[in-house]
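Appendix B. Chain record.
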Amino acid sequence: MKEERFYTLMKRLTAGKASEKEQAELQQLVQEDEQLALLYREFFPGGEAAEHDDDSEALLAYSAHYARMQIAGLFDAAPEPARGRQRRMYLLPAAACVLVLLLAGGWWFGLREKTPAGREVKTQKGARTHLVLADGTAVWLNANSSITHSPGFNRTNRELTLTGEAYFKVAPDADRPFIIQAGGLKVKVLGTTFNIRSYPDEPNIETTLETGSVEITLDDQPGNKIQLKPGQKLSVDNTTSKMAAPGIPADSLEAPMLLLSKMRVDTAGNSTVDAAWKEGKLVFDGDDFQRVVSKIEKWYNVTVVLENKNLYTTSFTGVFDNKSLTTVLNTLQETGKLAYRLENDTVYVR
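Structure tokens predicted for this chain:
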């Protein structure tokens, strides 16, 4: 989204790292959006900024933007708005009030302090979000998912924990690899784009690489490192996350099943099919019905009750681009493999 792009460009500009192309892109965003223009003028005041001095609505909008940027960690070393002491005395309390309200509500960027050890970003069922981490890494977070920063993130390390599904565009940093703990495996990268799906209620953890390279290790096999190439997908039995569970003898457990495959590219875009969700596309790629149910429940925040257990062996393929729940269900019903009825937020399938 252009707002998040604006924040990224502002951070690069204030750090003296913006290229001429990025500066031109920032100017284009400012010209197209009045609220972004107001925010830009507060940091780089010009002749037009004075006309907003008495506009309380514009000031509140600016304050909300300023609070949002603070929450995102984009102003650790950025200059304060150059407007004079009286202006700052008026502006900062407004921004502080907005900041308190946003944090109390717990919904801005989905951020909330989980523990003193780290910050959690969380989405509910039926919701998705996009954010930029303090190190410049862009993250798209799918429904019913969360990431939690480790202590010292972007200072001494770049480590986080993922539950659910996320797409990462990792900012390069040769001195500090980006490490993600997802279920029973770790993914280590320097700078690349990839998708991870790791829901506790699903049988597999899947990592799909688009560009660059990643190194994957299983918690129970730290000496076994798996390298992925662009377009490859690794599926790991989710029981790896249970191998260290208390009371389970190690010799009673089988090695996790690993499946390395080539991932198809979404013909409507440049990303793999597994990452199409971040563009608003619900994809069934030969999925068995158990996986179809899991995706529908998370995507639309509903409960699916299966009245015909034989459907678990049935597979479905289809792409739904920003379609309603009833459209998806009607399409599945038209295959002749199932029938459904919708009662409030519960779907009964037979």
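Further analysis of this model is presented in Appendix C.
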